[in-house]
Design brief:
Layout lengths: L3 H15 L6 H6 L7 E2 L5 E5 L4 H6 L6 H12 L8 E4 L13 H18 L3 E5 L1 H8 L5 H4 L4 E5 L2 E8 L2 H4 L3 H11 L2 H6 L13 H11 L17
Parallel strand pairs: 2-3, 2-4, 4-6
Antiparallel strand pairs: 1-3, 5-6
Helix pairs in contact: 1-5, 5-11
The protein binds iron/sulfur cluster.
């Protein structure tokens, strides 16, 4: 079993790979920066959104616009701060014009997300919106049917509770959705207080993510180190 410090160092190595990634030629050509994710590298709670927007692309950080402020507020309402959680996206690069992520891009980028989950070892992952919910559940069921229902899944070698939520960007402009998101958020402390999910064996596997992890192991990327951005991980 790796220590938290070892896992944090390994996460930095994944970040170094991702920041030079060109697996999606269009995204690599149009992005300003790779938005790998930020927060506590040993967090019990992780959030996974869709893809960086314009502000995130400029700053290199996830959820920094209005949706990010809403996420901060909802966290504050349950007694948490952003520095206590880890926030990432399905795609690490901004799709031009904020178009939807394409299936080939999601597949290409999923190995980074998978390795983030393995190294951070969260107990609960909130999937924000349809893209992350469908990817991590390995099922096309949409967020409107699933929000607020926690389920144990196996990702890599660990069992984790997935907790689908509406995406804050969608809830910003729809009061009823915002109230639902807030109500679902209020259950997070209760989920975090539950015992850790059982280890693999009796619950769903997500084989396509295992395949993606193998593909990532064969990826040869050698970006220049950037000491400043390593401060993304607390
Ligand atoms: S979206 Fe992911 S896989 Fe595609 S270029 Fe960016 S980091 Fe690489």
């Amino acid at each position: 079993m790796q220590s938290a410090a070892d896992r944090r160092e390994a996460l930095k190595a994944v970040y170094e790979q991702a920041r030079g990634c060109e697996k999606c030629p269009q995204l690599a050509a149009t992005r300003t920066t790779v938005v790998f994710g930020a927060g506590n590298a040993d967090a019990d709670l992780m959030f996974v959104g869709e893809a960086p927007g314009a502000n995130e692309d400029k700053q290199g950080l996830p959820f920094v616009g209005q949706a990010g402020k809403l996420l901060d507020k909802l966290l504050e309402e349950i007694g948490l701060q952003r520095s206590q959680v880890f926030i990432a996206n399905v795609l690490k690069c901004r799709p031009p014009g904020n178009r939807d992520p394409r299936p080939n891009e999601i597949e290409a980028c999923s190995d980074y997300l998978h390795r983030q989950v393995e190294l951070i070892e969260p107990r609960v992952i909130c999937t924000l919106g349809n893209f992350s919910t469908k990817l991590l559940r390995g099922d096309p069921t949409g967020i409107s049917r699933l929000h607020g229902r926690a389920e144990v899944h196996t990702i890599g070698r660990r069992a984790v509770r997935l907790y689908p939520l509406y995406h804050p960007a969608a809830a910003l402009y729809t009061p009823s959705m915002l109230e639902t998101l807030r109500a679902d958020f209020q259950r997070l402390p209760e989920l975090l207080a539950l015992p850790a999910p059982d280890q693999p064996g009796a619950i769903d596997e997500i084989p396509e993510l295992e395949d993606a992890l193998e593909a990532a192991a064969e990826t040869d990327l050698a970006p220049e180190p950037d000491a400043d951005q390593l401060g993304l991980f607390d």
